[in-house]
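New to this. Help decode both lines:
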Amino acid sequence: MSQDLAENYAGAFSGHLQPGKKAALLIVDVVQAYVLPGSPLYLGGEDALASNERLYAAAKAAGAPIIFTNVEYQADGADGGYFFRKVPALKSFVKGSPLGAFPPSLQPSGQDVVVTKQYASAFFGTTIASTLHSMGVDTVVITGFSTSGCVRATALDALQNGFIPLVARDACADRHQAPHEANLFDLQAKYAEVISEADACAVLSRKA
């Protein structure tokens, strides 16, 4: 096929979604496992962590809802099923592991919602959808780790649960730039809007 990637996708995957009336910030798995050198899941996400900190401050200033997710398994990983077996590094999230903690620079406050999950999507097997609906939220600004894993799965499920997913590219990271960019491209094409940190701040700062 002689077409380049943009030409190949043009027309078939060129639609766009506009932010709705009320947005929430959904911070997916921004925990120590991904930002501490030496961790099996370390992905060098320091710049993305800093972007998350700025987005968190913007959401706080605007009074926008904020939801954090983390991952936790019982000691034998039985509650992680085949996912836990497939990805050995998930042992980093066995209950009590310091790698499952939130970074000191990005801690939930008493007003934020924290949802603990066992699988990739923040929506799978959790109460996030009903919580967002009860808040009157129709748009989620999604950030976190990793782009090709839990961020992608969460953005897809946000769409399938009736929310407008906006993925803040600067606040996401992956183990390698290639899957990071490939998944952002595919999310933009099919399931979400991929936006800058500045645009994400503007969406979070809007009043319903």
In short: The chain is about 35% helix and 20% strand.
